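Example (one chain per record):
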Amino acid sequence: MGKARVRWFAVLGFALALILIGFFEPKGLKETRKVLLTLYGRSVQPMGCFLDALRTLWSKYIWLVSVAEENKRLKEELERLRLERMLLLEKAEEAEKLRELLAFKASSGFEVEAAEVVAIWPRPRGWCFMVDKGTSRGIKKGMPVISPEGLVGKVWEVEEKKALIVPIIQTGMAVSVEVKEVGVRGILQGREGRLRLLYVTTDHPLREGQRLFTTGFDGVYPPSIPVGWISSLKKARDGLFWEAEVKPFVDFSRLKVLFVVKGS
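Predicted structure:
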């Protein structure tokens, strides 16, 4: 501490001497002033370099802090814009879906009641949909249920403001269908989330990819409603009938709005 103080006092002394010489400078003291300036410059040069380095370091630190804050602000702005874009896309998809549903309702050829799926109702051998419409909207037990993609199922139970819909893929469900490409009819049976085509003999030229439609002969579903397509095909052990798996047109895992057919 003693040496540092002496050094600072010396620097201050040099500075004071230079100031005095500036006010009272006889001609003979010019050389003395030059010597003092040289000595003062040498004494403060290390301190000046240190201060310059410190100022440079501080300015860089301030710059880095400002850059970090700007990056944080830009990231937050980007996240906000991404969220807004997602919301706009969702709204656009919902609007497009609503237009499709309204167009389907107008062009279906049936008197239908739109109902929103509000819950999935578990059952011992499958699952069902709970919708937000019931007898107060004219819905009755046994009415067929469709979607823009095709046949969904039928009303199983109904109350004033809700109804239980059983899909065709549930065990025990059966639909009279026709493979229109070859004009052959059969029974489509639901079993644990899958569909099987029954009672079609092997003398009919079935093939994978052929589409099935309702016939209307079962007295439950109107005719010509799309049901699904043959996804796999093989002959039974007896060789008399086809064993055909059918993929439904409806994606039951994504159903949100259904249409209960109240009349043609």
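Caption: The radius of gyration is 44 Å.
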